[in-house]
Write a structure and sequence with these properties.
The protein is α/β, with parallel strands linked by helices and 735 residues long. It has 24 helices and 29 strands. The strands form seven sheets. Strands 1, 2, 3, 4, 8, 9 and 10 form a seven-stranded mixed sheet that branches. A six-stranded parallel sheet has the order 13-12-14-17-11-18, with helices on one face. The protein has a six-stranded parallel sheet with strand order 22-27-26-23-25-24, sandwiched between helices.
Amino acid sequence: MRYPAINVAEFIVTEAFGGAGEAGEVKVFEAVKAAYAGDEALGFWKYPLVTRETVREPDILVADPELGLVVIEVKSLPLDIIGAVTGYRWDLTRPYYGKTHLNPYEQARKQAQALGEVAVRKSGLTQLATRAIVAVPLITREAWNERFGTLLSDVPMLFADQLTPAQLRRALELTPPVRYGEALNDEDWLNLRRALGTSGSVPKRQVRYLQAPLESRRKIDLIARTARHLHAFDLQQELIAKTIPPGPQRIRGIAGSGKTVLLAQKAANMHLRHPDWNIALVFFSRSLYDQIKFQVNHWLKQATNGEVTLDSAQHRLRILHAWGSKDQPGFYRSLASQIGVEPLTVANTPDASPTAKLLFACKALLDDAKATGQSLQIFDAVLIDEGQDLVHEKAELSFEEKQAFYWMAYQSLRPVARDALLDTGEAEARRLIWAYDEAQSLDTLTIPTARALFGDAGAQVFGAGASYKGGIKKSEIMNRCYRTPGPVLLAAHALGMGLLREAGMLAGLTNKKDWTAIGYEVEGRFQSGSEVTLTRSAANSPNPLVQFTDEPLVTFQHYPDRQAELRALVNSIQHDLTEGGLQPSRHLLVVTPGLEWQPYNLQREVFQALRKAGISVYLPGNKDVNVPKQKWPNTDPNGFWRDGAVTVSPVMQAKGNEADVVYVVGLDHIAAQEDSIKLRNQLFVGISRSRGWVHLSGAGMAGLPLTGEIKRVITAGDTLRFTYRQPRRQLDDVE
């Protein structure tokens, strides 16, 4: 019997079709897709898994709840090239890709064994069956039998005349197991899907008191229950993490959707599939260094059972800060070295924001490369995280009407080969992949779409069409937020965009399609004066904390002065540490918003208040805990956490990090300029750092418009109703 479909058949093409010998594989893959249409299955073309040097990725992998794992090895050979068949061995009449004999079933059997071992290890399904079969899409059964007789007992075969849905399914069912097992029930089927996918391999959080009683309402116990929650198989995550586009790709993801994790996995998969490629994974915030290195190393080890690590791969796979420094290589500095230019530093660029300083340096480098005629091409793929922080609206920071950093990254890439090995159909393509969330932009209102990045050259960079050959999309939108609970993310979007602001929204999406694309259910029309209702679906906010507690996840208090606010902050943190059972580091985070000097002055005040109460504090970038802001050489530019200490951070440094309880203090800085989109973006970033609770506070805010707005957002719960007005900043997906 078949199980009721949890999902219809899902098939993933991990790299664009077009390679030598792939026409037959495409034919079989399409036949498998047709055979499972409307039924339950998970399929991959070139599943990215390498466990031993002698085991290659399978041509086609099918997961079926009744059959288990099925590996299909495709040999697109004409019959006349096979001279003799003895057992598993095929002797050839002429070389086939340099080989005079083949053992296709033995190859498939080894792959099935290896995949079965990995799947069992990840899923715990000790009764998982695996099968292996050889497909010959250029040979019919009759032609084979005429030449070799019925030599089918040793080698399970799938012939050209068996590629109809009914015959293909029958052939797979009759294939003897390599590893015997049983049909899977619904729970086991979900576990197998997780094991094959990203969700089953994401590093698990280590939280104490995992055996806490279910009735406990201590925060540490609620966090532990939440941490045990397994994400369902997410097809879009698999498509982003496991696919290798043959050209540029844009990934727009809401906060907490896992952009950093998936880019790290994508970079690891690229290296494993193409160990000869030079790959750069680039990011903006230095506090993300350790996190990204950990993630890439995890995915390399996960895919190879520990045989490949970042240390062994880093001569080809490089984790690079966008700028870099003398003691730590960076993307810009590496390219400056490539053409023999002395790299600019923060000190010898014009006084401006960190983004503007970097873009000034990038533009200067592009000018130097153009003047000297030197090539920047050293990479085969460049992946960019935090893409919204690497653009600027100032024309003087652009290079020939293109965003300087992105054009530098594009110029650093070798064009994808245009020979028999790959044909994307584009005139030229380079693997530039960038991920961003425009709502987290703190220094600019520019949205890094292809048009904004490359101007008139954008059409040439991306080429025609929305997808590459084989179906890999040129643009993805990630709408599922795994980090931040639904009510918290809803509040972050509402306050960040000013949706319930009395004077009307400041920023946001202006149509139903784009709101739906980022995970909201929408009612109403986006016409001035019309009412719009937004609801965040549970499916797109799978963090289950809201199911475990009736306590509000978002709170707000305002106080007559700063000292009263800080006393309340100290009391609340002490309660979290004692009654809540939380640890200071990584469980708690204090964020200070503001412009120019404001966040740093407030950071200092919070530091003093916590230290006076005997609470250990860490300021990001410092070498030591419990000390004011340190200067070189007593610094750690990559540091964001220290064990035993509560981190107090300005928004810019907090971006990319997360904690279970986030305190956003000093909201009076935002209330004083409540129509500032940059400050609203800071508020969004601060709130969306949370994996659980958010406490908002400010001083001297009685009667201010922002105070009433925050209260309306919190009262709204899981549904926002607002009167639509055209926003100053439109965030629509215009590509």
